[in-house]
Amino acid sequence: MKKIAVFMIFGQSNATGHAMPMKEEDYISVPLKNVYGLNREPNQSFDIDRLEFSGYTSFGMNLAETQDNTYSVPNQLARAWQDKIDAGEDLPDLYIIQISIGSQGLYDMWNMEMERKLKPGTLGEVEISLFPFTVHILSLLNKYFKDNDLEPDFVRMHWRGGEQETRRPFASLMEGKLKNDYKKFFGALREALGFNAPIVLHKMPFVEVFAREDTTGGHLGAMTYINYVFEQLTHELDDTSIFDPTKCPFYNPAIWDSGIYRWDLIHYTGEMNTWVAEEILNEYIERK
To answer: Domain limits at 83?
Structure first.
């Protein structure tokens, strides 16, 4: 069997690369030879019983929201991975699964109890019950790999979400429900996969301007607690770790955008996402 690497990323706008359109010269227009993704056209459905991977491009590869050609982590990882192979690095083929919609947290379209819906489109139009949809997609992965004589040798499931929960009543987050719901959520995704894929939770860095303005325990307090829940999950779920964006060499909390955010102080820059992609690639190279 041919060994492969699998990168999954789920969450909301920072998993999508929201509002970071690529320069046209950076588009991945020609499908990559050694990196594959799930294009929306044949795969965005509850009715399919098999997946169709194709050579990765920077358009059409988010199975949820329609927002293409962005400097997202999966796009930047795909390019970096292919460039390494083209330069002679001994890397396996990479398979990417991306499912994300902006402003959708664990109690929005990722809600485990949301009625089953699938309305494709751009942010503001799209309406997909992301939890059952993701479970359905993951449940088909092993069949695809077996049918194509592929052996996943390196698998990571990244969660880049949590921002939406900072807008919920702070007291409700403190009741323990959030942690238990995350445990159910990731447990169900792993069950659909058929094995305990390592989970990587992306910590949310503080923005100092929020820290100065927020003295009520609102946004800042919620963010602190959600990051704390992520840390708890690393102790209570097997093979679960934290990805810390503050390790980025150009992170600087002393400047207004912390060196990693766009002007809105919510969404990461393309440079930041490129660094994250390089860290993911380096993790594999160091593991070899």
So the answer is: 2-287
